[in-house]
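Quick one:
INPUT:
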């Protein structure tokens, strides 16, 4: 009898068990969060906690100051008693704020990478990145031309600079078109795509009709393929940025080497310019991938 009573007390009530089953059937079984998602969730929780602490600190202490002033006007007692809770709470609030700021500062790079991988970075950040790369490239090429004009450098270096600059502009234009197309194909970014994929997976897990379940499975496969394509395109976009930065660094180095060119030493831009040419070919392949992504039809990477 005691065992049976203990078993009944350990099991959840029928109503709670029924509600739990209905809730699980409604939302499905969500996959465990990734390390990036856990980091972003921890960041958001800490920021929300500090904001709530700030509001409570300002409201409560402001009310106490107002109460002190009211009592002083009515009773005539102006002893600043509100300072004691203000200082005591202020120490705790200071520790909370400093600890949160230090935690955010230590993980700033990790948070930025997590936001980028999860598609949480605002789109205007990418626009500013391409504009900044374009500005740096133009400044580096102009400075290198001016430095070469004051030395005994040969005309081949000027030609390499102009060729590299033209290819860099083409790469940056293509990267901007890539961002615009990705924004059209996936308006909510990677975060919105993952949310849509989770919704379809939930509908697939709940569907009982075989035909409907098959349709949801097909939609899930299409969304998974789209996610893989977009992740690959984002990698290509980052490689374009790294290649442009390589050319900018080479142009800056050429300006520094211009002081030695008059003594007979030579430098070359052939390698970074060749990398730019290779990336232009990659950009053409990316353009074909975008066309297939917009049309919704798969296309082999080796197709012309």
């Amino acid at each position: 009898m005691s065992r049976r009573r203990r078993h009944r007390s350990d099991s959840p009530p029928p109503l709670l068990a029924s509600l739990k089953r209905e809730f699980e059937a409604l939302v499905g079984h969500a996959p465990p969060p990734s390390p990036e998602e856990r980091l972003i969730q921890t960041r958001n929780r800490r920021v929300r906690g500090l904001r709530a602490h700030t509001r409570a600190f300002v409201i409560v202490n402001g009310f106490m100051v107002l109460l002190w002033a009211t009592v002083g006007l009515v009773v005539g007692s102006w002893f600043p008693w509100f300072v004691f809770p203000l200082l005591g709470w202020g120490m705790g609030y200071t520790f909370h704020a400093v600890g949160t700021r230090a935690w955010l500062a230590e993980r700033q790079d990790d948070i930025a990478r997590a936001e980028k991988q999860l598609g949480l970075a605002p789109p205007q950040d990418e626009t500013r990145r391409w504009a900044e790369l374009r500005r740096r490239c133009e400044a580096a090429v102009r400075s290198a031309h001016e430095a070469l004009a004051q030395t005994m450098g040969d005309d081949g270096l000027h030609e390499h600079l102009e060729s590299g600059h033209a290819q860099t502009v083409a790469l940056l234009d293509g990267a901007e078109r890539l961002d615009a197309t990705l924004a059209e194909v996936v308006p909510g970014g990677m975060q919105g795509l993952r949310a849509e994929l989770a919704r379809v997976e939930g509908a697939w897990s709940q569907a009982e009709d075989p035909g409907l379940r098959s349709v949801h499975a097909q939609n899930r496969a299409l969304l998974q393929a789209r996610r893989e394509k977009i992740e690959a395109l984002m990698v290509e976009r980052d490689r374009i940025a790294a290649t442009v930065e390589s050319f900018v660094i080479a142009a800056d180095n050429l300006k520094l080497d211009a002081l030695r060119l008059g003594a007979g030493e030579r430098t070359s831009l052939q390698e970074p310019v060749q990398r730019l040419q290779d990336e232009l070919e990659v950009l053409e392949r990316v353009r074909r991938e975008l066309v297939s992504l917009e049309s919704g039809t798969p296309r082999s990477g080796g197709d012309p």
